[in-house]
Amino acid sequence: MEQIILTQLRSLNRRIAILTGIMLLICAVVVLLDIILRRFGASLGGTDEISGYVMAIATSWGMAFTLLELGHVRIDILRTRTGQLGRALFDLFSMTVLAGTVTLIAFRCWPVLSRSIDNSSRANTPLETPLAWVQTPWFAGWVWFAFVSWMTLVAATILVMRGRFEQSEAAIGCFGEDAELLK
Question: Which class for 57: exposed (0-12), middle (13-18), buried (19 or more C-beta within 10 A)?
Fold first, then answer.
């Protein structure tokens, strides 16, 4: 069951990463087009604002993908000096702290979006972008990251409880550790 959870989360996050990459690519094309148009005395206008929104959305959605690809940075000087059980416990602790932190961030994002919806807030820019349009996918990305963090923690905890330390390490361990240090 735990491997199914991890496999499904990875599959969904890869699709999300592709969509996020497409969104970033489209943004880059629009910015490039705006730069070219400026050479001829014209401009699309607002590309700096749009690219900022795209980066915020891409970051919030990209965090869950990075988690499952073991791309988040961790300082593991103690972890490398323990056996399999010790590493698994450090990994579970790390995931618990991450999941809790991300959940707190997601909870704190909601009032920002709620206020924008209630006030029909718009950006104080020439585009006057309705902020809820941007903050909704941004908030959803943080909620998704929190969900993925907790589901990954649950799956890894089950793996550790079943003594499947190698699979747990593959799910929530550190990438690129020297194999000799782990023996």
Answer: buried
